Amino acid sequence: MANEAAKLPEIAPQPGAVFPIEDDAPRVVIASQWQLMWWKFRKHRLAMFSLVIVVILYIIAIFAGFFAPQSTASYQRRYTQSPPQTIHWFDNGQFAPFVYGYAQETDPRTLRRSYVVDEENKIPLGFFVRGDPYQIGLHGIPIPGIRDLALTLDVHLFGPITPGEPFFVLGADDVGRDMLSRLIFASQVSLSVGLVGVFLSLTLGILLGGLSGLVGGWVDNLIQRTIEILRSIPQIPLWMALATAVPPRWDPVYVYFGITVILSLLGWTDMARVVRGRFLSLREEDFVMAAELDGVSRSRIITRHMVPSFLSHIIASATLAIPGMILGETALSFLGLGLRAPVVSWGVMLQDAMNIASIANTPWLLIPGAAVVITVLAFNFLGDGLRDAADPYH
Question: What per-residue string of b and e applies to 24-60 under the rule 16 or more CB within 10 Å gives b?
Answer without folding.
Answer: eeeeeeeeeeeebbeebbeebeebeebbebbeebeeb
